[in-house]
Amino acid sequence: MNTTKPTLVHVIAWTTLASGVVNLFWGFAASATAIATLIGIICVPLTILPTILGIFELIYAAKLFSNPPQAIKPSTNIAVLEIACALTGNFFAVAVGILSLVFYNDAAVKDYFARLNEPFHSTPPPPPSPLPASLPDPQLVAPTPVEEAPAPPEETPVKPKRVPRKVSKK
Fold first, then answer.
1. Cα–Cα distance between 29 and 47 in angstroms, integer?
2. Which residues contact 46 (CB under 8 A, 6 or more apart)?
3. For the chain, what percent of residues have pLDDT higher than 90?
4. Would residue 124 count as lying in a domain?
């Protein structure tokens, strides 16, 4: 199976790796800043989100870099979450997310991911079942004609007799 990586897949892998590192540092810095203030302690869960996204980005980039390539699908979810990093002020991740979504729609990238995931979507045909030893070989035995049972004669429906009506005289 030819699974040479297109250039855009390499670009997606490198930018996702860089965005993952930036998101890790961004999340740690934002969390440290939030913890330093009294009101910021309430916002700490929001500042942890870039850190978690950074971890997912690093894992996905490692799968894209793997040799032999792993069967993975385009991660549009990560790209959308990178765009959502605009809420935390990380506009580098926003640019990477937009570029990733554009690159995922390229024909060469779609074809690469389709070839990569091809063996996992098709099921192999079941192996032929061997014939039991007691049955004769079907190629050696001539087929016997099947005799049809004679159809019962068709009965003509009998018309019911009409009973004359009695007319009363008054």
1. 9
2. 87, 88
3. 34
4. no
Q: Residue 10 corresponds to which tokens in the numbers above?
A: 């390499």
Alpha helices, DSSP H only, in 76-167?
76-84, 91-104, 107-121
Q: How many structural domains compose the chain?
A: 1
Tokens linked to 139? 């190629």
- Percentages helix, strand, coil for the chain (3-state, rounded to 5) are 60, 0, 40
Q: What is the domain range of residue 41?
A: 7-117
Assess if residue 141 is contained within a domain: no
Structural domain contains residue 50: yes
Global pTM exceeds 0.70: no
Residue 169 located in a structural domain:
no
How far apart are the C-alpha atoms of 114 and 73, rounded to whole Å?
A: 8
- Under-50 pLDDT residues of the chain: none
105-136 pLDDT, tens digit per residue, is: 999 999 988 888 876 555 555 566 665 566 65
